[in-house]
Amino acid sequence: MPRRRQSGVDVREENDWLVTYSDFITLLMTFFIVILATSQIDQGKFEELKASWSALSNRKAEMPMTQLIQTLEQSTEHEPISLTKMPDGIKVDFDTEALYEEGSATLSHEGVRLLTIFASSIENTNLDGKEIVVEGHTDDLPIHNDHFDSNWELSGARAIRVTKQLISLSVDKTKLSAVAYANTYPTISDSKELAAQRKANRRVSIYIKRSTRH
To answer: Containing domain of residue 139, as a range?
Structure first.
């Protein structure tokens, strides 16, 4: 009889241990399910947050350009300068007659004044992710003199001269580049007069745009 009681006690202890182990496994499974569910929710929130942050970053990137356009419009309102909004920036066109003597790449006093106005306008602009391309353009009349063999040399020299002047006015030189186009990119003129069309094509453009540099 005593042996039976002892045996009964052993059986109950073994069953209690199995129940405790089963409860532990159940709790452990529940814990991992909760962790998994929480992770999924957090991942979803993270994706939403990332999308919102991306949109906000893009918005912040657009704001300086918008402010720059407004500043340039105000500072050049009464000057021989025209502004053109582009898909990736803004183009500022200077009539070459306001910058140079005919057939020359030497800046006039008026040209220096106009470039100073431009440099002052972009002085406080955030240029991160942007570049400034100085474009030299001519009309279709060929040139050949002691200084320039063709319109390519003339347009290149004018673009380089403007670039150097901007550097002297403290514009970040790492953002600048100069390009010669000669008469390959004529502007669209409303005038049907050939002389007026050619005058419009003789220009220097400063193009502030999203950077394509790597």
So the answer is: 76-210
